[in-house]
C-alpha cells in the first residue's frame, strides 16, 4: 500500500482531462476549463498583444455583463476563449479572408481578433477601447446585428452566416454557461432532476435549468 503524499483534491482529474486533450481526444468545455484552472492559458495569453487581451475582456463583459450573478469577465471567460482559439476550434485558427473585412481590405494572415479589432474600431469611429461605454455597446450591437441578419448577405461579406463574430460569440456564450458560476448560478442547477411536472409556472425572470455543464462536445 502506498502511504506517500497524495495528490491534492481534483489534481488527478485535471491531469486526466489535460492528458485527454493532449492525446487528441474530443475537446470539451470541461477540458478547456481544467486547462484554464491549471494555468495552461499562460503561453496563449502571452502570444496576444495586450490590446487584444483588453479587447477580448471588454467584449466578453459587454456580451454577458454582471447582473445579480457574475458575468463573463468575472468568471474568466476570456481565458477560456483564448485557449479555444489557440486550439483552433471550429477553424478559429485559420486566417480570416480579406473579404470578411468591411471594404475587403483585410491584411494577409489576419486572425479572428485582428478582424474584431478592425471592425469594432471602424464602427466606433476610432479606437474602440478608448471610446465611451455607450459607443462601445453601440458598435458591438451593430456588429452583432450584421452577423445575425436574415440570410442573403453576399458570400464573403463581413456579415451573415460567415461572420467571425458568430464564432467568437459562440465561444463566449459556451464558455460562460459551461463555467461553474454560469451553470450553477445563472442557470438553476439540479444535479438529479426530480419528479416530472406537466405545468411549471414561467415568468419573465425565470431561469433555465441545468444538470450537467460538462457534456457539450466541441468535436
UniProtKB/TrEMBL annotation:
Q: Is Ribonucleoprotein one of the keywords?
A: no
Among InterPro entries, the record links this protein to: Gluconate_2DH_su3 (IPR027056), TAT_signal (IPR006311)
Under the heading PROSITE patterns, the entry gives:
TAT (PS51318)
Question: What does the UniProt keyword field contain?
Answer: Signal
The record ties this protein, via Pfam families, to: Gluconate_2-dh3 (PF13618)
Which residues are listed as membrane-spanning? none
Q: Which residues form the signal peptide?
A: 1-34
Q: What is this protein called?
A: Gluconate 2-dehydrogenase subunit 3-like protein
Amino acid at each position: 500500500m502506498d502511504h506517500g503524499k497524495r495528490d491534492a483534491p481534483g489534481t488527478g482529474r485535471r491531469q486526466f482531462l489535460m492528458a485527454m486533450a493532449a492525446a487528441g481526444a474530443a475537446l470539451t468545455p470541461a477540458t478547456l476549463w481544467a486547462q484554464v484552472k491549471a494555468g495552461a492559458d499562460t503561453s496563449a495569453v502571452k502570444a496576444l498583444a495586450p490590446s487584444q487581451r483588453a479587447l477580448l475582456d471588454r467584449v466578453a463583459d459587454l456580451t454577458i455583463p454582471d447582473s445579480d450573478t457574475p458575468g463573463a469577465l468575472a468568471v474568466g471567460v476570456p481565458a477560456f476563449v483564448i485557449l479555444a482559439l489557440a486550439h483552433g476550434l471550429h477553424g478559429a485558427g485559420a486566417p480570416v479572408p480579406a473579404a470578411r473585412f468591411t471594404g475587403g481590405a483585410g491584411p494577409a494572415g489576419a486572425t479572428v481578433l485582428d478582424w474584431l479589432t478592425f471592425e469594432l474600431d471602424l464602427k466606433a469611429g476610432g479606437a474602440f477601447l478608448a471610446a465611451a461605454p455607450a459607443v462601445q455597446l453601440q458598435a458591438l450591437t451593430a456588429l452583432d446585428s450584421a452577423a445575425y441578419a436574415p440570410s442573403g448577405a453576399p458570400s464573403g461579406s463581413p456579415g451573415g452566416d460567415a461572420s467571425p463574430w458568430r464564432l467568437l460569440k459562440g465561444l463566449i456564450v459556451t464558455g460562460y454557461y459551461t463555467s461553474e458560476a454560469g451553470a450553477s448560478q445563472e442557470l438553476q442547477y439540479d444535479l438529479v432532476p426530480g419528479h416530472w411536472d406537466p405545468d411549471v409556472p414561467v415568468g419573465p425572470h425565470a431561469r433555465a435549468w441545468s444538470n450537467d455543464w460538462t457534456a457539450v462536445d466541441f468535436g
